[in-house]
Amino acid sequence: SEMCIRDRYINIASHKLEMRKEAAQEWRIIMIDVAQNLMSLGESIAAAHTASVNDNMTRSHYHDYYELYFLDNGERYHYIDDKLYKTEAGDCIIFPPQTMHRSYSEQGCTFSRIVLYFRPDIISSDALRQKLADSYCVYKSDTESLKKLRRLMYYFLEAQNSASAYKQEQMEALVNLIIITAVSYTHLRAHETLRH
Hints:
The protein is 43% helix and 29% strand. The strands form 2 sheets. Strands 1-7-2-5-8-9 form a 6-stranded antiparallel sheet, with helices on both faces. A 3-stranded antiparallel sheet has the order 4-3-6, with no helix packed on it. The chain starts with a helix and ends in a 7-residue tail after the last strand. The N terminus is likely disordered.
């Protein structure tokens, strides 16, 4: 009977652990959906952070707003308008509205990324808006620029979750700083198409 009690305890603990894993997986999915849902509900800015393994898109999609994709850790492949690009930790892609894209990783590859969605009217200058509207680019940061960009991305996530009276103003300012950092302080990676 002592053995049955121990086995039952192990089964309950195992079941609770499995439920926590499922809840964590659901939370990750909800976080992705929350950012997109906020945009579909009329928000002008939204972001989501995801750390995952084998979280691969099977179909391309597009948005009616910009997407800044910051790969914080790992490697990802991106199909962008039917061309394949490889991104590495620290790389950033800015997709203009209506750009067809999807991403995936090799089997078993862990990654961490932040997506930041924003509407064109959030961009503070016409010159910057024109730079982003021309085409998508993959940006590769040098070490110092990457530190700045990473800090700004995580600071944005904090601001998004804050209860500050000036939350919207703070988020708009941060989006513009993030964009400027990405396009000014990084080296543009030429459109390298991978051959598969």
